[in-house]
């Protein structure tokens, strides 16, 4: 069984993390971003927390819909794509998010600032794609 209230609470957390990033004064270009350690870590942490919420939602759907158990967090999104919870064309985007999350958490050879800056400047909308897809799926059920 899917707990819609729990999922909505997690979606709102993602929205809050995104609003925090978007409302913070931008350091400007890449060089200023990469030199501003505090802001860079702030962005990384909010992105990490957003991805964690996405993974939690994903795992909840898999359990609630009695779907195949994923072997990795990235496979979790693939399973939801196959189950039509998420649009199949978005699955690779969400899978790449889990890889970025792993870099953040485990600090494999450090995190490339260009990746974080790219997400900050151009990819925050991907989180909203996830939010909208989940809400649309829940509304239909």
Q: Kindly give the count of domains.
A: 1
Span of the ends, CA to CA: 11 Å
Q: Count all strands and give the number.
A: 0
**CATH domain topology:** Four Helix Bundle (Hemerythrin (Met), subunit A)
Q: Summarize the helix and strand pattern as letters.
A: HHHHHHH
Describe the structure.
The protein is mainly α and 141 residues long. It has one domain: Four Helix Bundle (Hemerythrin (Met), subunit A) (Up-down Bundle). Helix 1 runs antiparallel to helix 3 and helix 1 runs antiparallel to helix 7. The model has no long low-confidence stretch (mean pLDDT 95).
Primary descriptors:
single chain, 141 residues, mainly alpha, Four Helix Bundle (Hemerythrin (Met), subunit A), globular
Summarize the structure.
By secondary structure, the chain is mostly helical. 76% of the residues lie in helices and 0% in strands.
């Amino acid at each position: 069984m899917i707990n819609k209230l729990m999922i909505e609470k997690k979606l709102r957390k993602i929205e809050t993390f995104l609003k925090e990033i978007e409302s913070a004064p931008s350091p400007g270009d890449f060089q200023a971003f990469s030199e501003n350690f505090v802001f860079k870590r702030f962005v990384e942490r909010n992105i990490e927390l957003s991805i964690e919420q996405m993974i939690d939602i994903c795992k909840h759907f898999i359990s609630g819909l009695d779907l195949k158990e994923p072997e990795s967090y990235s496979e979790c999104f693939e399973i939801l794509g196959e189950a039509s919870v998420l649009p199949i064309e978005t699955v690779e985007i969400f899978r790449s998010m889990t890889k970025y999350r792993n870099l953040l958490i485990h600090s494999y050879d450090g995190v490339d600032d260009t990746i974080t800056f790219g997400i900050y400047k151009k990819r925050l909308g991907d989180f909203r794609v996830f939010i909208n897809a989940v809400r649309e799926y829940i509304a239909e059920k």
